[in-house]
Amino acid sequence: MKIKTIQAFPLTYPEPHYNHVDRYITLARIETEDGIVGWGECIAQFREAALAVKVIIEQGLAPLLIGEEAIDVERLWQKMQNRIWWYGPEGIAAFGVSALDMALWDLKGKALGLPVCQLIGGQIRDKVPAMASFIFDMEDIDWTLNEFRWMCDQGYWFVKAGWGMRPEALFGHDRVRDIEFVRRIREVIGDERELVVDTPGIYRLWDVPTAIQRFRDLEAYRLAWIEQPLFPSDLEGHARLRAAVSTPIGTGEDEWDLDSYKHLIRSGGVDIIQIDPGRCHGITGLRNVIKLIEAENLQYSMHTWSSALNSAASVHLLAISNRGVSMDFKPHESPMQHELVSDPWVQKDGYLNVRDTPGLGVHVREEIVQKYLFG
């Protein structure tokens, strides 16, 4: 079970859920001397980041892993941590570790004939909630409402939208318009479904007093949570907001590792913690974060809006804990969800089944990797 080769593949693809803008991920492929292959992913998001991850993986991390026993995943994860301590525990190198760690767990599961969830703590769920997630068109409320109607028709019980198709037209800019959007969405989806709205806190649209006002404006529409209401690093502001409102706060998608999440949790400003295996040091890293979340009696939701590999890792990370609420899921077909793998995820009645297939449970089509490869 010694590792023979490691390759990285930066991919670009048009995202139909976001006006067909180009998005970027980097895949990692690990093959052993006896021909077993594991795949992983990081959500690099930008072109230059996807290319940089390829360099980190192939020139920095691959030499550490080639020749090592592939099933010693946690030891290899620690070996990578020891390498990147200076230049990337929070940054590009974290993407590289995430993709490689995911690939190692996929490979180990295939070698042992077990799904990943049974290797990282044990499966306690047969299915996990899929939260249909898309981007608002804040300039076309009828289109947006029709998307919600369609998602209800598809059987989703968790629905989410946010941001906007253009920087000039984002949820959070216009108080009157925002309230009207949420009011009409609640009318369309009814009282039983869970609704989440995602505000682009990275743009600093709200300060704390404004956020308090907006939370109270939307209280009547019973949101499951409001996501990223403030700039992500404003932990004190999140704590002040949480103390003043009743609607739960979701944040955490911009965090990186266990230390980063410790600071977030101890700030007292979050209810639902967003975690992403394609960013936060992979499955190994997030298993540690989940233990912290469980100890603090909080909840988490998987921020996974990239490829079927990240979706697979998220399914397994939800399957091992009763503190996981949901996972983001693209409701329409997307190249990285439906074309990249031969067995794409399909929701039924708002859930994804936890597959008993060894490894991550999806099969990458290598010709599609070549189709979307760049750089």
| DSSP strand count | 12
* Relevant CATH superfamily of the largest domain: Enolase-like C-terminal domain
Number of domains: 2
Low-confidence stretches: none
Radius of gyration: 20 Å
Using the coordinates above, name the CATH class of the largest domain. Answer: Alpha Beta
Report the principal-axis shape: globular
- Spatial gap, N to C terminus: 31 Å
Mean pLDDT over the full residue set: 97
The CATH architecture of the largest domain can be named as Alpha-Beta Barrel
| β-strand amount | 15-25%
Structural class of the secondary structure composition?
A: alpha/beta
Q: Which range best describes the helical content: under 10%, 10-25%, 25-40%, 40-55%, 55-70% or over 70%? A: 40-55%
Number of helices: 13
What is the fold-level CATH name, i.e. the topology of the largest domain?
Answer: TIM Barrel
User: Helix and strand string, N-terminal first?
Assistant: EEEHHHHEHEHEHEHEHEHEHEHEH
Largest pleated sheet:
8 strands, parallel, barrel
Strand order of the largest sheet: 4-5-6-7-8-9-10-11
